[in-house]
Amino acid sequence: MNRPGVRQQARQQALPADLRGIGAVTCTLLLLAGAALPGWRWLQGLAPTPWQLAICALPPTLGLAAMAAATPPRRTLVHLFACLLMLPLLLLIWGSSLPGAIAAAPSPGTRLAEARLFDGAQTEQEIATGGPNPVGLARMRGAHFADGSELRLLRFESAEAAERYLDFTAAALQGRRERLGERPVLRLHQQAWMERHGADLLELRAASAEQALARLQAQGLPAPPEAAPADEPSYWPFALVYAGAQLLCLLAFVRWVGRRA
Q1: DSSP class of residue 225?
Q2: Average pLDDT over residues 240-254
Q3: Virtual CA dihedral for 210, 171, 161, 154, nearest 10 degrees?
Q4: What are the Cα distances from residue 80, in Å, to 14, 59, 258?
Q5: Separation of CA 102 from chain center
Q6: Is the Cα dihedral 109, 114, 118, 120 positive or negative?
Q7: How far is Cα 237 from Cα 98, in angstroms, rounded to an integer?
Q8: How many CB atoms within 10 Å of residue 90?
Q9: Residue 165: is its pLDDT beyond 60?
Q10: Checking phi first, is residue 44 left (phi over 0); if not, alpha (psi -120 to 50) or beta?
């Protein structure tokens, strides 16, 4: 009589009795792995969206599907182990691409006063924007002054749209961020500067930096505020803790299953 074969057959028949407990532990660990990411973002003040929660619910859902599938016990065990090994790591990689903190909406008081801005201009021109547009530009207005300098106002729907357009202009025209007197500006070339006041961009053209600064002072324009760096929480401390906990859980799971199977 082939006793090793009998023992192997007995182990295969005994496995389904333990498979339910193994599957329950696997799904519990996958549930914790799926809840860790939105929990961390919530603690950082970043409320997860419904589709983010749906993606985070996929690991335990797939674990339940692997447990309920009509497959041989050994194959079910392999599927559960694969879910526990790969799904939390994929979730961790996906989490690194999620956006960070969203800047607060600009205050309505950040708009420039047009009457003061164009006071004393020789000629003024309203420039059509073509209605709603992808960059969020709501209005354009320009003016020419007696000393040859020009001012152009670009009014956007939000401060974020204005900042995006300023960054795009800096990259496209190879502009340099520098100071005009004490004012932080973007210099486009030798005779053109741009500065942002909330949701408004102001483009200035003059023969020299001195003339440009004199025009801004003559119009009584305050210096734009310094751009504060975004205080965005780092993802990597969470990722290291998450990956370490995942490795420890995986090793403990393998040891525990090896004793039961």
Answers
A1: P
A2: 90
A3: 40
A4: 18, 11, 14
A5: 8
A6: negative
A7: 15
A8: 12
A9: yes
A10: alpha
